[in-house]
Amino acid sequence: MIELEGVPELIDPVMVAAFEGWNDAGDAASTAVAHLEREWKGEVFAALDAEDYYDFQVNRPTVFMDGGVRKITWPTTRLSVVRIGGEKPRDLVLVRGIEPSMRWRSFCNELLGFAHELGVELVVVLGALLGDTPHTRPVPISGTTSDSDLARRMDLEETKYEGPTGIVGVLQEACTHAGIPAVSLWAAVPHYVSQPPNPKATLALLNRLEDLLDLRIPLGELAEDARAWQVGVDQLAAEDSEVAEYVQTLEEARDTAELPEASGEAIAREFERYLRRRDGGSPGGHATADGAEGGSYRRDSPGGRGRPPKPPKPGTGPGPASGSGPAPGPDDEDSSED
Question: Model-level pTM?
């Protein structure tokens, strides 16, 4: 561990973490933590030693000029802290980095060492996976935990996932063994439009985090960015009748699946969330829901503009384009990452 500053004294701290790579379709999760850091002016106080956890041929360092001097930025994971004011101030410890290439258990132990030292009361890990979800509907967010008591108290699902996992699942399991309550929030990103950024998925994760922690997050221009993103994808999909038909098929499947959820209790819960936000002024390869290899977002239109790929032929599976990395069933959604 490379300590950049002294460890601060914190108030009721919660650790919120996200990692680029397999667990971060559309960069939705890492962008959410970056948003928190930017909006609340987070101060970095520590960073993991890149030599211990990263293969630099996989995650290469970058060179930049600073006042005429060449400097190198190494891939790593950094910890920052932000204070949320108000009647009941509290602190968030933000962890943002890249899924490590090696020594995952040591990586998690080092992060948990900081969590213990800082008195962290809860760890929330954000992730995003590729799924069969239409871009025209609200982004599905699943909240899971390995703790049955925590699942009941916080209205979460107790994960039952079995299969390959990423650093999100490993870190949550490490938290369980260390006696630290831990939750994973997963956003489902349309597999046919996985190219980052995906502000709609980022916004959905932040809204769910608001509900989970009972706080108000300044959203800045994120809501407008999400609307613009959807309009852009609408236009691209409309250019291809096969893609438009495929999106309609996903919409019908999604709407049918959600009909049983349109109960009075579910509607009341969503309305309460809406009122809270209104009163508060808030408006590579990736994990997939079925464990298959993640699809990519083709960039084959004029000017390098992203274009949704053709829908899959019957029987060929959900990914219409080639994947860019290992894909896995995260402990997510109804394959939800723990």
Answer: 0.77
